[in-house]
Amino acid sequence: MTRLVQCIVYVRDWCNANPSRLPWCAALIGAVALLPSVWGGFSMDDHYFHIVMDGVPGEPSLRCSPMDIFAFSDGDPVHNSLRMEHGIPWWAPARWQVAFFRPLTAFTHWADWKVFGNTAWPMHVHSLLLYSALVFAVTRLYQRIGETRGAKCEVPASQPLGFSLQPWVAGLAGLFFAIDMSHGLTAGWIANRNAVLSALFVVLTVYFHDRWRRDAWRPGMILAWFTLALGLLSGEGAVAAGGYLFAYALFLDPGTSSRLRRDGSSHSIQLFLRRFVPLLPYLIVVGLWQIPYKALGYGVVSSRLYTDPTSNPVAFAVKVVQYWPMLLFSELAAGEPMIWNYLPGPLAGAYLGAAMLFLATVTWLIWPLLRERAEARFWAVGMLLAPLPTCAVFPQARLLMCTGIGAMGLVAMYISSRLARSAQCEALEPSTDCLKSESPRRKRYSYALLVCWIALHGVVAAVAMPLMSLSPVLVEKTVRRDLDQVPSDPAVRNDTVVLVNALVDVWGIFVPVVRMSAEAPAPHRCYELAAGARSLTIHREDERTLLLRYGDEFLTDQYTLAFRDPARDPFYPGYTVHLERMTVEVREVAPDGRPREVAFRFDAPLEDPSFRWMAYQDGKCAPFTPPRVGRMARINNPDMYEVVCKLLGVPAFTGPSTSWIDTPLLAWLHD
Q1: Closest CA to 561 of 307, 344, 348
Q2: Which residues contact 381 (CB under 8 A, 6 or more apart)?
Q3: What gap in Å lies between CA 92 and CA 86, rounded to an integer?
Q4: Would you say residue 534 lies in a domain?
Q5: Is residue 231 part of a domain?
Q6: Nearest to 349, CA basis, from 108, 571, 12, 662
Q7: HSE-up of 175 (CA within 13 Å, CB side)?
Q8: Residue 514 and residue 430 in one domain
Q9: pLDDT digits (tens, 9 = 90+) for 236-271
Q10: How does DSSP classify residue 342?
Q11: Model pTM score
Q12: How far apart are CA 485 and CA 24, in angstroms?
């Protein structure tokens, strides 16, 4: 501990002596940590952007505007029918839509494709520069918030928490933000640039708002509104700015007391107005942004992967209860929230309980800091409110960019205040009140949290973030490993690939997309019959008809959430989908509206050489031979949880295999 304190003291002294260099150093460290991603190439949605801007060969109606590359489907039944010919699964409703209004981010991607063509590394450099700008801006914001409170609130040197006001805390927070391991995937994936851009404009919005309110700098007011608008045009995540602006009005707005008076006097009302009326223009900006968003038809329809808070508030509230603690826990504990998505129900509940216990313990330990310092309360409330909008989609690390702004500010303040308290207590006699003010148990837990945060956000993150920046490469290798099993001879351009069972529901889309993006032979048609099935029974009725019976996991787990929500769009016996070479008929439906048995009738015998049969079975993608007439076949796959346990060499839980989304209470609330 002594050596650790000495190192931190050295860093503290250097930072305090060179405050103007801190943002530049933090930005440089962030760029170096993200540097491995430059060689990451394209992954998943990167290929899709290329195709939709150039147009799908033979389907000119599927070409979209460069500003609409985040509109994965426009909800047009005719276009969706064409998309089903190219890999979208048959169970997607006719008006299925996932369309995001991100024209500013889309413009950056379009400019990349026009300037750099099919070369990935310059696009990664572009994202790296944007991330460096974000780290620079957030470090400058950390400095300014400290300067703001430091100028107004002088704390005696004898007070332990006064150490948290020193300028080096901004450098520590900026460093932690720059190497936050969750940012590796976020900034290292070209297609996820919207998260970096929107977070950058969130930081600028809060920065200019502070300059307006503290310095009475009138241009800051206009710039804050403008940067919020740019953030919303970059990605929906920019609404997280509202959480930080609310926290600012509550705790940092200059010229107001730290607590509202509750005597009902006119002075209390005046204080309230002086704090919160300046936030009304931001609500107007959000309202103006919503006008084209709704008028132009953007939004999500019939997808369980995304939940629109305005159209389905009850389902969104249920997701907040589940997802919000996981996102906060993952940010503060430097974890990966997607792990939770792959756990079976009982383990997912235990994991969620552990996360809530950790958050409760952290709250108890940092409470003195929150009670003492207004800026700590500002970072904490901003951190708590920022992840709420992201609960519309299942937890994942790439959603934590804006949450990390407040989290790293709070972590840095706690570390500095705790180290200051230790140094000051050691300088005093053991009998003084400094040592008597804490119980031994609280002191042990406080030191444990101190060491944990320094280790996780300082040491582990420095190693993990460069590795995480290469995670899109691993995803791409997994995709290519399976897709390379699909025939790639030139004749496939006139054939139909039939995926009896895909790894996940989006797999069918990437069969033609990745091939076309790489300028390799792509199938003329691609049909997906099932996805994510751990068990699938296949019966051959006649020479042209297959009858599939699905397991209980179909359309319930994280593999099959993107294209339909049976609770809102239930199936019924006789539900039929007509495609060019295949007709789908639902024959049996489960009580919750999911298809249980479905017949697929093709326009030619299944042995016709124009059909290329593939299936994901026994944990890998391989050619598939349909059973003979009157015979049956069965597909079995390991659960992702079982695969992870096998890789780690630990025993898998042998209880019920239902995932978190299948627990009866959550399913009832969702429905």
Answers
A1: 307
A2: 243, 246, 247, 250, 251, 406
A3: 13
A4: yes
A5: no
A6: 662
A7: 23
A8: no
A9: 999 999 999 999 999 988 755 444 444 445 556 676
A10: T
A11: 0.87
A12: 47
